[in-house]
Design a protein that fits this description.
- With 70 residues, this protein is an alpha+beta fold.
- β1 and β2 (12-22) form a beta hairpin.
- It is elongated and about 45 Å long.
- The longest helix has 14 residues, at 56-69.
- It has one helix spanning 56-69; strands spanning 4-5, 12-22, 30-40, 46-47.
- It has one domain (14-69).
Length: 70
């Protein structure tokens, strides 16, 4: 996955990772959702945005926006 560097801190990066889950709760069907992750060099990666995205393109847009604004 593409990593986006923060404009103010090159050690801070944002990217998208797939996160499979069962949906809806009572269904056997598995769908893939995407989350935006951030990491500062030398520290653990964490979830950077509180929403999960149905489409990877939407998550990529948010990752790039977070990098541009940070």
């Amino acid at each position: 996955m593409k990593r986006y560097k923060s404009k103010s801190n090159p050690n801070l990066k944002f990217w998208v990772e797939p996160n499979s889950q069962y949906f809806p709760a009572n269904s056997e069907r598995i769908i893939t959702v995407y989350m935006v992750v951030s990491q500062v060099k030398g520290y653990e990666a964490t979830e950077a945005h509180d929403d999960w995205f149905k489409y990877q393109e939407d998550a990529e847009e948010i990752a790039q926006q977070l990098a541009n604004e940070s």
